[in-house]
Amino acid sequence: MSPLSLLKHASGECVPNFVGGEFVPATGGEWLEDLDPARDIELARIPRSNSSDVEAAVRAAEAARRGSWGKSSNAERADLLDAVAGTIESRLEEFAHLESLDTGKPISLARSVDIPRAVANFRFFAGAVRHQSTDCHSMQSALNYTLRKPVGTFGLITPWNLPLYLLSWKTAPALAMGNCVVAKPSELTPLTASALAEIFAEIDAPAGCFNLVHGLGAEVGQSIVEHPQIAGISFTGGTSTGKQVAATAAPMFKKLSLELGGKNPTIVFADCDFDETIEGVTRASFANQGQVCLCGSRLLIERSIYDRFVSAFVERVGALHPGDPQDDKTNFGALISTGHRDKVEGYAQLAIEEGGEVLLGGKRPELTGDLAAGAFYSPTVIAGLSPDSRCATEEIFGPIVTLHPFDTEAEAIEIANGVRYGLAASVWTKDLKRAHRVSSEVESGMVWVNTWLLRDLRVPFGGMKDSGVGREGGRHSLEFFSESRNICIQL
Ligand code: NAP
Q: Which residues are designated catalytic?
């Protein structure tokens, strides 16, 4: 097996689009720089595609739908997804290397979470569609049965924080249900999406079922959303971009799934398992440098243990050391870009202006050599802010956690619900009744109790309020990526 040719792009070559089973440059001949955020140097160039490239990808997808792909069985599509999963798995190390280079995340994280989850996504939806059943409702004089038909061509638009993980989360169910895909990854992290295209080419997937168009959101993303033959959009990204996507897609009656931003509460009660909670909350706060939509960026702590908890938390977080993402021992990598680091830094400054006290971090780490130019920011813990301050209510999407004491369960719930977002929450307590009560009252699409980011791919994933519309995962994905058709037969 040849190594992924993407690895050679670390020398600045241009990564192509993947349209109709062929690797092609953008029609306009323009390109964008893809940077290594840990060093601020060019990794590769990607096509700055435009609406003509999107048009070509949609044409290829529609041709695939009319061809053999459109006639494929569930079992054939499941076999294809299994082949994709197996091939990624056999190259896990190469994929992890690319993902870490492109995002700045520690390679240990890419190796243990991002790439294995992508493999699991393909494998899970292969199994799901293989075992899929549909409804049958019998009446005295008639029989109803429901088919689930492909919707058409889906636009899949994904962010930079979990590039392959989220692309596979959408691609696998979309293909499983017989749709075609035109995907646009974030222009900041294009490499593993292109590596995935290489896998589709290598296993001889039907041309046009999976198409990849690189470029800018306002150009390629917008063209995908606007295209009349794109029947549905699955979008993961920021809330303001999601609003724009919805404004275009909703009046065109496209199927629409929006997975958006969050400002997630982590609620720690005095009766928690102290040591396990410190570990769990540290991970929930700073995994991937706080750049996971599910990260708990507001830490609510019952006042009776506040001082003890904060001092143990600060000590534990202090063991996270920003370093070279490619080093196996690094437990804290770079942020996605120097621009994003500046935004995070701006929030740390704002926190001080809002009366906050920086207990840890609040600065760039002092790294030497080629890492000195990287987009690093130290894990930062801030106390003393009002729960309705800007820093405690706006999504920062970086390594900043704000701490808030509370006295009663009701107060904790009020603070937790006092933001426009409602994506994820975690509750840390040994009291089972309290865990049920709080989980039921917190306005959130997902609640973890005494854990965080424990994922079962069957469960509904998504947020409420400004965190999104719709759910993906398990049968929710199979339903979103298909059209139900009821057939009623008079007996
Ligand atoms: P973003 O700026 O909203 O971008 C997301 C994707 O949309 C990118 O591919 C972007 O392309 C594209 N895009 C931008 N403008 C567009 C437009 N007008 N039409 C169509 N597509 C457009 O978000 P991000 O900064 O990449 O990611 C961080 C955000 O994602 C955070 O808010 C985070 O909470 C959220 N997120 C949510 C979940 C979830 O499951 N709820 C998971 C992960 C991340 P460009 O990169 O080229 O601009």
A: 259, 293
